[in-house]
Amino acid sequence: MKQNVVDAVNRQIREEMQSAYAYLDMSAHFEARKLPGAANWMRNQAREEVAHAMKFFDFLIRRGERPRLAAVEAPSTEFNSILEAFELALSHEQHITQCIHDLFDLAQRERDYPLQTLLHWFIDEQVEEEEAAEGIIDSIRLAGESGEAMFMIDRELGLRQPEDEEEA
Q: What residue segments make up the domains of the chain, in order of their start?
């Protein structure tokens, strides 16, 4: 692998771990506010982001490269409502989508076909990630100020189970 590609994959590992940290922080916020469903959804999202980082980590190892882990920053996830939190989550997923697209562009320029193949899975995954966040935002907006509706949304968010990330 070319060094610039290895470096870019290592940066993506950090992005995925930074995502996990942000979602875990959001989970803690919701736990403290007695919204266990939203906390569960964010905790599962954090687990998924760690699994994504591991896909890139394992990819480098399979290619004979050594992953180089960089420090992640303390999350700065400040928000005043569940709507604002999920809007922040959507914005974050859009950032990750752009990172994946940039990595794919680099893989194309450098003719790194194995990386392109891996990234196809991530491109599809990011469509699902953004769609899920948008759906939750739509539901929260529809609920408005209704406590009963927010209770139902929180309950539905609590049904999310950890996903099996072994596909790809």
A: 3-157
Longest CA–CA separation in the chain, Å: 55
Burial class (CB in 10 A: 0-12, 13-18, 19+), 47: middle
Q: What size, in residues, is the chain?
A: 168
**Residue pointed to by tokens 């180089």:** 68
Report in angstroms the alpha-carbon separations of 29 from 72, 81, 123, 150: 19, 10, 29, 16
Superfamily (CATH H level) for 3-157: Ferritin, core subunit, four-helix bundle (1.20.1260.10)
- Report yes or no: 81 and 63 within 8 Å, Cβ to Cβ: no
pLDDT tens-place string over residues 65-105: 999 999 999 987 778 889 999 999 999 999 999 999 999 99
